[in-house]
Design a protein that fits this description.
single chain, alpha+beta, 4 domains, 27% helix, globular, binds adenosine monophosphate, binds glycine
Length: 419
């Protein structure tokens, strides 16, 4: 099979790395890819958002299967366009991807189908939002309705922060069109947990749980980022807790989307908070998380291509997922200044000396050398019998790597990760 993966981050690197082990694939492409991905796939210089360019390339190259990893092309309907052109594509339709691309859509779905989530109100203008915000308990959470690279969420701890968050969204337009509608949401307390699951529209198979670390600095300080590192498992859940998440959240969500005429095929991401009154959803994503994918997929023992095909062939009920025992950790190494302004183009040293799997995000390869080319640069991965050992090994790996201005958290997996 000729397979094309869409995207250019660490998530796409781990997906390509895992797919490159599948005997089913004769040729693997990635658009646009990055320095590390070029080691395992042919990188094609087409942007992940160039829907027409991707469709044209797939048709002319005779691609059999396209895996769409990032949220933007999913929201833009890439999977729908590929299908119209007779190409099998992994990922939800634009309609099903609305669980991520519109928080208003996902909240409404959760309320109508009794899926536990934070209480909220939706606003389309600043005056009403400010008036409502005067009389609520703080902290509370202000969220842009649309896609904002994981950064459209502000936790307001006092009245000033609340007002400036509302103004940032409406009058200052800091999140562009994503902030045309704004949710104000109840603040939930408890540890965070991510559960990713494969779905064929009916059957849903959860992967091992994981935990992301969204803040830029140790002790969960600093701004929200795309994610600075992840561990698996994300929590020590009892069978009963696992069952509760499956029966109260995962299965009802897949059923709800099917009943809405938008069956979800692909990977669905449940961002949860384990509150004292049970698990609640704080967000859905319509794809693998980044860096959760880098922490999970190396532990998967199945042929990933077979799992993808079982989703798109609607026979996931025949698959059982197997994961390497123990735990894993990936530590993200970022450019100095990320998630704000940062410089790029610095040489990266020590990747080969590092005794770990290293997944590339913002890198490019020139004359056999790697250079920084983005905010999140690398994810250093290790697994072991326990998550604690995996954390130690991943940090051993990090010590080998150097580039100017690099920064990384030193407490991945060691902190409760509550924003
Ligand atoms: P999101 O992009 O919706 O995942 O939000 C980013 C981060 O904000 C989450 O990982 C949480 O740490 C935090 N967050 C979002 N919603 C809530 C909430 N209702 N209560 C507490 N924390 C939240
Ligand atoms: N790590 C969070 C995300 O991928 O949205």
């Amino acid at each position: 099979m000729k397979v094309l993966v869409i995207g250019s981050g660490g998530r796409e690197h781990v997906i390509c790395w895992k797919l490159s082990q599948s005997p089913k694939i004769s040729k693997l492409f990635c658009a646009p890819g990055n320095g590390g991905i070029s080691e395992v796939a042919d990188c094609v210089p087409i942007s992940a958002e160039d829907i027409q360019g991707i469709v044209q390339f797939s048709v002319s190259e005779g691609i059999d299967y396209v895996m769409v990893a990032p949220e933007n092309p999913l929201a833009l309907g890439l999977v729908d366009r590929l299908k119209e052109n007779g190409i099998v594509a992994f990922g939800p339709s634009a309609k099903a991807a609305m669980i991520e691309s519109s928080k208003a859509f996902s909240k409404d779905l959760m309320v109508r189908y009794h899926i536990p989530t934070a209480q909220y109100r939706l606003f389309d203008n600043e005056t009403d939002a400010l008036e409502y915000a005067h009389n609520i308990n703080l902290p509370a959470v202000v969220k842009a309705d649309g896609l904002a690279l994981g950064k459209g969420v502000i936790i307001a701890r006092d009245k000033e922060e609340m007002e400036s968050a509302i103004r940032a969204m409406f009058s200052e337009k800091k999140f562009g069109k994503a902030g045309d509608r704004v949710l104000i949401e109840e603040f939930l307390e408890g540890p965070e947990l991510t559960v990713l699951a494969f779905s064929d529209g009916d059957t849903v198979l959860p992967m091992v749980s994981s935990r992301d670390h969204k803040r830029a600095f140790d002790h969960d300080l600093g701004k929200n980022t795309g994610g600075m590192g992840a561990i698996t498992p994300g929590a020590d859940l009892s069978m009963e807790e696992e069952n509760q998440i499956l029966e109260m959240i995962i299965r009802p969500t897949i059923k709800a989307l099917r009943e809405e005429g938008a069956p979800f095929v692909g990977v669905i991401y449940f961002g949860l908070i384990l509150t004292s009154s049970g698990p609640k959803v704080i967000e859905y994503n319509a794809r693998f998380g980044d860096p959760e994918a880098q922490a999970i997929l190396p532990r998967l023992e199945n042929d990933l291509m077979e799992v993808f095909e079982a989703c798109t062939d609607h026979c996931l009920n025949r698959v059982s997922l197997r994961f390497k025992k123990g735990g894993s950790c990936c530590v993200v190494m970022a450019s100095g200044g990320y998630p704000d302004r940062y410089e790029k183009g610095f040489e990266i040293q020590g990747i080969k000396a590092c005794n770990c799997l290293v997944f590339h995000a913002g890198t490019k390869k020139v004359n056999g050398k790697y250079y920084t080319n983005g905010g999140r640069v690398l994810a250093v991965y290790a697994d072991a019998d326990t998550v604690d050992e995996a954390i130690d090994q991943a940090y051993e790996g990090v010590r080998n790597i150097q580039f100017r201005g690099m920064h990384f958290r030193t407490d991945i997996g060691r902190t409760g990760s509550k924003s």
